[in-house]
Amino acid sequence: MLITFEGIDGSGKSTQVQLLASWLQERGKKVATFREPGGTIITEKIRSILLTKDSEELSYKAELLLFLAARNHLISTKILPQLNEDTIVILDRFSDSTIAYQGFGRGLMIDEIQQLIDFATDKLRPNVTFYLDMCFTDTVKRLSAQSTRLDRFEALGEEFFEKVRNGYLFLQETESQRIKMISGTESIESIHSFITKQLQENFSSLL
Question: Most Cβ neighbours (<10 Å): which of 73, 146, 159, 183?
Answer without folding.
Answer: 73
